[in-house]
Amino acid sequence: MHYQDAPLYHQKLGEEIRDSAARLLAEDVGPGDITAQLIPDQQWATARVITRETAVLCGVAWVDELFRRLDASVTLRWSAADGDRLEAGQALLELEGPARSLLTGERAALNLLQTLSATATRTRHYVDLLAGTGVRLLDTRKTLPGLRLAQKYAVTCGGGHNHRIGLYDAFLIKENHIAACGGIEAAVKEARNIARDLPVEVEVESFDELDQALAAGADIVMLDNFSLDDMREAVKRNAGRATLEASGNVDETTLRAIAETGVDCISSGALTKDLKAIDLSMRLVD
């Protein structure tokens, strides 16, 4: 059994987009933008958003929703879609509407757009490094607080795949769970009793634990900080019985070598937590 991308594109994601847009405006605008009041309320303007570096775009729906809530008279014309590669200097969005509204929504929109695009960009870089291996790149729960679904969506825009969304949609049995349950076999058995239709993954730190997890019928086994040689040996021992996921010490310098050991998936928290926001800029134009 493999992890499937979570159903992010339906009700849950739509709710998240609406809720996060409302939170962003409440956080930044509060009772009102006092600086925007310097501008005549009938003044109309056009603004353009450009990227100052290469990137993969993500966050279109959030920006659309934010300006819809702020001022429905603002028109947004996108020249790129989520998942598109952007080149430095490229214009990706043109906005037209009341100057006050454009400037009031600027920072909230760019904050979200540059963060989600950073996740998509890092993911695409890693996916490109894995090209030809057939190995799936997975995210983790190491996401920025309050942005779980948004970042998970951004990972898919970059060509990656979603691990579990939270603690509710898959079992991941770790060292402390194993100790508290009295062993791997007992933990896997209890997981099956609780929810037979959910995937059961066991994190292992040794060949002995790998053998126990396989004997217990785990769907997925996470190889935690295994060396490359030990990963290759784990692939042989597994012989296709479970999905093997490599985790730990994953970065752009190690990714390809890990994939070439024969594991099925590689998970990395760096996709969502170790980010540098994409450099975006919005300017009013004549």
Using DSSP, what is the number of strands? 12
What structural class do you assign from the helix and strand content? alpha/beta
The percentage helix is 25-40%
Q: Count the helices. How many?
A: 9
Biggest sheet character: 6 strands, parallel
Distance between the termini: 56 Å
**Order of adjacent strands in the largest pleated sheet:** 6-11-10-9-8-7
Radius of gyration over alpha carbons?
Answer: 22 Å
Mean pLDDT: 95
Order of helices and strands: HEEHEEEHEHEHHEHEHEHEE
Query: What's the shape?
Result: elongated
Compact summary:
With 286 residues, the protein is of the alpha/beta class.
What topology does this entry show?
Layout: H1 11-28, E1 44-51, E2 55-56, H2 60-70, E3 75-78, E4 85-86, E5 91-98, H3 99-129, E6 136-138, H4 148-157, E7 171-173, H5 175-181, H6 184-194, E8 200-204, H7 207-216, E9 220-224, H8 228-238, E10 243-247, H9 255-259, E11 265-267, E12 280-285
Parallel strand pairs: 6-11, 7-8, 8-9, 9-10, 10-11
Antiparallel strand pairs: 1-5, 1-12, 2-4, 3-5
Helix pairs in contact: 1-2, 1-3, 2-3, 3-4, 6-7, 7-8
What does this structure look like?
With 286 residues, the chain is an alpha/beta fold. It is 40% helix and 19% strand. It is built from 9 helices and 12 strands. The strands form 3 sheets. Strands 6-11-10-9-8-7 form a 6-stranded parallel β-sheet. Strand 10 (243-247), helix 9 and strand 11 form a beta-alpha-beta unit. The protein is elongated and about 70 Å long. The mean pLDDT is 95.
